[in-house]
Amino acid sequence: MNARPKKSFGQHFLHDGRYIDRIVSAIRPRAEDFVVEIGPGEGALTLPLLAAARRLTAIELDTDLIPGLQARAASAGELHIVHADVLKVDFTAMAHSHGVSRLRIAGNLPYYISSPILFHCVEHAAAIQDMHFMLQKEVVDRMAAEPGSKTYGRLSVMLQLACRVEPLFEVPPEAFRPPPKVDSAVVRLLPLAPEELHDARPEHVYSVVKAAFGQRRKTLSNALAQLLDADAIRRADVDPRARAETLAPADFVRLAKVYGDR
């Protein structure tokens, strides 16, 4: 019996087998992988992932979905369901407690809290091998946007400083029950290797990026006035007359370093 989708959880259950197969093929789970699924719902992705990986941890907030999910997965493999808000799940501790170096994370994310979930996962990127997420297409466009584009912003910079972002394919509304009012897309996130990561203080990067895009139509000298003056911006080899949307992620790192040295 199909579950009734709940608006309060932003539930849209994927049901089209063609797209389920494409997502599983993109992930390519193996028996040695420790896979974590965020928001398994009715198990459309859970069951084929479990069949390939043989063990899977699913994080589900909706208690009404858990009994049905357990019943469907009973003969598919070793399924462990964590009843929790994903924003409160410590992925680093999860990896350590299961004796694995890195997790593989997947999920059809609730669109209304997708950005907080992405930022939460990035905080644990050192314990994550890769991430495959279904998201609103507009969000995926923003994640992968390049400097100078209309969709380039805070989400683009913060994710690209931590991961390689690879949009994979689009998924139409009719692939879900009920159909959302927006197009969706699947994206792959590959956390950067330690030697590829910047060495600025994360809180300084966050402050600079947030201030810069908080008033994105203003020049940096105006948008960052509470953090850095024009001379300080120049010391970062950045033009104070530029706007945030024209800067590469590395430019924000240099600004954050100057901010930290002030």
Automatic annotation (TrEMBL):
Gene3D superfamilies assigned: Ribosomal RNA adenine dimethylase-like, domain 2, Vaccinia Virus protein VP39
Domain Ribosomal RNA adenine methylase transferase N-terminal: 19-193
UniProt: S-adenosyl-L-methionine binding residues: H12, L14, G39, E60, D85, N108
Record key words, sorted: Cytoplasm, Methyltransferase, RNA-binding, rRNA processing, S-adenosyl-L-methionine, Transferase
Catalytic class of the enzyme: transferase
Chief localization: cytoplasm
Pfam families attached to this UniProt entry: RrnaAD
Highest taxon in the source lineage: Bacteria
Subcellular location: Cytoplasm
GO molecular function, one term: 16S rRNA (adenine(1518)-N(6)/adenine(1519)-N(6))-dimethyltransferase activity
One CC-aspect GO term: cytosol
Catalytic activity: adenosine(1518)/adenosine(1519) in 16S rRNA + 4 S-adenosyl-L-methionine = N(6)-dimethyladenosine(1518)/N(6)-dimethyladenosine(1519) in 16S rRNA + 4 S-adenosyl-L-homocysteine + 4 H(+)
The UniProt record lists the keyword Methyltransferase: yes
Biological role: Specifically dimethylates two adjacent adenosines (A1518 and A1519) in the loop of a conserved hairpin near the 3'-end of 16S rRNA in the 30S particle. May play a critical role in biogenesis of 30S subunits.
Family the UniProt entry places it in: Belongs to the class I-like SAM-binding methyltransferase superfamily. rRNA adenine N(6)-methyltransferase family. RsmA subfamily.
Name recorded for this polypeptide: Ribosomal RNA small subunit methyltransferase A
Annotated source species: Rhodanobacter spathiphylli B39
